[in-house]
């Protein structure tokens, strides 16, 4: 065991190395008057900014063919369950489609709803070859719908200059594609005029 002198020498040396900025007189003064609080000096670490992960560019998505549907998957029967899910989604969105439900309320909900899985028909078009195309919407882009028909053919139908009809539980809604050129994710915040127009 250490004697008093060795202990005192150890404490003084320890305090001197722990508090290098203080003089010996100040350390002795602290020892004789009050308890010593040893401070730890550390360098402030700079906060590293988290880098947000960058998504793929449009060119990279095209090169990777992320949005292309394989030919063996282009079958109408495969997507019928998607249509059933979509109908249930619309019924929940409109709080149940009852006979006394206001048509304009259904129309306003449909304009902002996700249409993937809906069965639509081209009723009017400036291009006669599009009229009568009926099928399930598989993909919606800003300017086009990709529709799978009952004949298992994938059709790319532009929104511009086309009018689409959509029916669910007896309610028929018309979509003027020229006024509907938005991405599906952008429609929820968009205000639409419910009054239709006769132009395409």
TrEMBL record:
Listed GO CC annotations: nucleolus; ribonuclease MRP complex; ribonuclease P complex
Places the protein is found: Nucleus, Nucleolus
Main location: nucleus
Biological process, per Gene Ontology: rRNA processing; tRNA 5'-leader removal
SUPFAM superfamilies (alphabetical): Rof/RNase P subunit-like (SSF101744)
InterPro entries, per the entry: RNase_P/MRP_Rpp29-subunit (IPR016848), RNase_P/MRP_Rpp29_sf (IPR036980), Rof/RNase_P-like (IPR023534), Rpp29/RNP1 (IPR002730)
Keywords: Nucleus, Phosphoprotein, tRNA processing
Gene3D superfamilies (UniProt xref): Ribonuclease P/MRP, subunit p29 (2.30.30.210)
An MF annotation (GO) of this entry: ribonuclease P RNA binding
Self-association and partners: Component of nuclear RNase P and RNase MRP ribonucleoproteins. RNase P consists of a catalytic RNA moiety and 10 different protein chains; POP1, POP4, POP5, POP7, RPP14, RPP21, RPP25, RPP30, RPP38 and RPP40. Within the RNase P complex, POP1, POP7 and RPP25 form the 'finger' subcomplex, POP5, RPP14, RPP40 and homodimeric RPP30 form the 'palm' subcomplex, and RPP21, POP4 and RPP38 form the 'wrist' subcomplex. All subunits of the RNase P complex interact with the catalytic RNA. Several subunits of RNase P are also part of the RNase MRP complex.
Sequence similarity: Belongs to the eukaryotic/archaeal RNase P protein component 1 family.
Function: Component of ribonuclease P, a ribonucleoprotein complex that generates mature tRNA molecules by cleaving their 5'-ends.
PANTHER family recorded: RIBONUCLEASE P PROTEIN SUBUNIT P29, RIBONUCLEASE P SUBUNIT P29
Name of the protein: Ribonuclease P protein subunit p29
Species assigned in the record: Pterocles gutturalis
């Amino acid at each position: 065991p250490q004697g008093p002198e060795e202990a005192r020498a150890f404490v003084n040396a320890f305090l001197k190395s722990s508090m290098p900025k203080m003089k010996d007189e100040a350390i002795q003064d602290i020892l004789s008057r009050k308890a010593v609080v040893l401070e730890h000096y550390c360098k402030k670490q700079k906060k590293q900014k988290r880098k947000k992960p960058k998504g793929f560019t449009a060119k990279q998505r095209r090169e990777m063919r992320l949005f292309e549907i394989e030919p063996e998957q282009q079958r109408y029967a495969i997507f019928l369950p998607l249509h059933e899910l979509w109908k249930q989604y619309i019924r929940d969105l409109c709080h149940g489609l009852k006979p006394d439900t206001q048509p304009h309320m259904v129309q306003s909900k449909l304009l902002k709803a996700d249409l993937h899985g809906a069965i639509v028909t081209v009723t009017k078009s400036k291009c006669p070859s599009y009229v009568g195309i009926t099928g399930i919407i598989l993909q919606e882009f800003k300017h086009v719908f990709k529709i799978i028909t009952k004949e298992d053919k994938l059709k790319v139908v532009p929104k511009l200059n086309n009018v689409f009809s959509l029916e669910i539980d007896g309610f028929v809604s018309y979509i003027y594609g020229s006024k509907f050129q938005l991405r599906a994710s952008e429609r929820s915040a968009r205000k639409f005029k419910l009054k239709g127009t006769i132009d395409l």
